[in-house]
Automatic annotation (TrEMBL):
One of its GO terms (molecular function) is NADP binding. Pfam families: FMO-like, NAD_binding_8. InterPro entries: FAD-binding_MO, FAD/NAD-bd_sf, Flavin_mOase-like. The keyword Cytoplasm does not apply. Belongs to the FAD-binding monooxygenase family. This is FAD-containing monooxygenase EthA. Its cofactor is FAD.
Length: 510
């Protein structure tokens, strides 16, 4: 590739003005840019990225084995088929895919790297956003103006992951690291490694490190459900040989969506059955007489938390080989040589990895205001899970928690382009969703019981329980309302800039 999509900025002035300003150059931001180029070629846009390269999560996380736990035919974009053989792919392959997408669609000249967005203020009289960003090189502030703001920032804080307060950390003579800040030069060959955690990150790290480390122990407070799936999809491989990539891609996507949605729905409708199936699958892949009841039998129902996927059962293989082990217990304190558990057992360690979770961050903590009034995200209600009540000319993309993130991004971007088409056709300058049902109950935007969600979801917009205000993680319902449904809605207020219109203050009405 001739272009690494990094550390280059097009010429810019302090007051660049565009139709759409996209915040973030990860999966969501790149998806928005491609949809604008394809569906609205006359629309001007720019992308502000705080880091010095594209990719978001996939350029940030560098820990061993980092990969997607969603299948790539659905985690990839609908407009660009995933052509590699691996269905569950490593992070560097995903990053290559994103770089190629940026190159193929000529997006690099639209990206301003090293621009961390601090604030954005909307003027109803002008019908435009003014966005303030701090540049990483000089630390100076730059300003941009735009008709629309598109937030493609994801939902995690890229500055810091979550680590609980562990007693005695300072006593430990070895190395303590969080996966979000993995040292590139870390040498763990032959070392004893303890990974604290039982989520997707821990389950990814352990089999990858076990090939080189002396031994890897997964220390968990309680187990998670672990589902083993083939790293390569035999059906997809066959279809790609028989059909062209585009036709095979469409069939495989439908198949994978149906499978994943089927597992989720079955988990909701028959949790006891799905619990037995998932635990029995783990039991079949572990040594005989292995204590599955202690180490792989969660206390919650399937999909109350996100299901952990392992390709070709690599975690179970690492345990079966003796290179890795699982300990289910609570931490009393760190010691000079490892970790003392409440049971009295001490785990010796040279390296301790705190795979204890991520920190959720609503829209990169960008401070929003409308006509001088600050917007508190938690006071707003999500409209069609892509706009905020009372906030004009803004769209966001937050992917699914129970399906591939990018499926939602594609739908949101399609609907966003249709919304712009509708406004242009009718001469509108601004649009804002107005919560027109003050008696409606408001609920958390996500209903997972995962610790990271429970810690952070209160700072996010709320969802409603009726009409366009729901935020169900249901692809088929979003297809109906975002791809097939009309743009016009009684909850939307369209206006011409400078012309007074009946609006309400951003946020909740009760």
């Amino acid at each position: 590739m001739t272009n690494k999509n990094a550390k280059t900025n097009p010429p810019s002035s302090p007051n660049d003005d565009v139709d759409v300003l996209i915040i973030g150059a990860g999966i969501s931001g790149i998806g928005a840019a491609v949809h604008l180029r394809s569906l609205r070629p006359g629309t001007t846009f720019a992308m502000l990225e705080s880091r010095d390269s594209i990719g978001g999560t996939w350029s940030l996380f560098q820990y061993p084995g980092v990969r997607s736990d969603s299948d790539m035919p659905t985690f990839g974009y609908g407009f660009r088929p995933w052509t590699r053989s691996k269905t569950i792919a490593e992070g560097h392959l995903i990053l290559d895919y994103l770089r190629q997408t940026v190159d193929e669609h000529g997006l690099t000249d639209h990206i301003r790297f090293g621009h961390r967005v601090l604030a954005a203020e909307f003027s109803s009289s002008k019908g435009r956003w003014t966005v303030t960003a701090r540049t990483s090189g000089s630390g100076q502030e730059a300003r941009f103006t735009a008709r629309f703001l598109f937030l493609g920032t994801g939902m995690y804080d890229h500055e810091a992951g979550f680590t609980p307060e562990f007693t005695g950390v300072g006593d430990f003579a070895g190395t303590v690291i969080h996966p979000q800040h993995w040292p590139r030069d870390l040498d763990y060959a032959g070392k004893h490694v303890v990974v604290i955690g039982s989520g997707a990150t821990a389950i990814t790290l352990i089999p990858s490190m076990a090939h080189t480390a002396g031994h890897v122990t997964m220390l968990q407070r309680s187990p998670s459900y672990v589902l083993s799936l083939p790293a390569e999809d035999a059906i997809a491989r066959t279809l790609s040989k028989v059909l062209n990539h585009q036709r095979a891609h469409r069939i495989v996507r439908r198949k994978n969506i149906a499978f994943t949605r089927g597992v989720f729905k079955a988990s909701r409708r028959a949790p006891k059955l799905m619990r037995r199936l998932l635990i029995s699958q783990a039991r079949r892949q572990l040594p005989r007489h292995y204590d599955v009841d202690t180490h792989f039998t969660p206390r919650y129902n399937p999909w109350d938390q996100r299901l952990c996927v392992v390709p070709d059962g690599d975690l179970f293989k690492a345990i079966s080989s003796g290179r890795a082990s699982v300990v289910t217990d609570r931490i009393d304190r760190f010691t000079k040589t490892g970790i003392l558990l409440t049971s009295g057992q001490e785990l010796a360690a040279d390296i301790i990895v705190t795979a204890t979770g991520l920190t959720m961050s609503p829209f990169g903590n960008v401070r929003l205001s409308v006509d001088g009034r600050g917007v508190e995200y938690a006071d707003t209600t999500a409209y069609k899970a892509m706009m905020l009540s009372g906030v004009p000319n803004l769209a966001f993309a937050l992917g699914y928690t129970n399906l591939s993130w990018t499926l939602k991004v594609d739908l949101v971007c399609e609907h966003f382009c249709r919304l712009l088409d509708h406004m242009d056709a009718h001469g509108y300058h601004t649009v804002a969703p107005i919560l027109d049902d003050p008696a409606m109950e408001r609920v958390p935007y996500m209903d997972l019981s995962s610790n990271y969600v429970e810690r952070g979801i209160k700072a996010f917009p709320r969802a409603g329980t009726r009409g366009p205000w729901t935020a169900e993680m249901a692809y088929e319902k979003d297809v109906e309302r975002l791809r097939q449904g009309p743009v016009e809605d009684s909850a939307l207020r369209f206006a011409v800039a400078g012309v007074p219109t009946a609006t309400s203050r951003p946020g909740r009405t009760r």
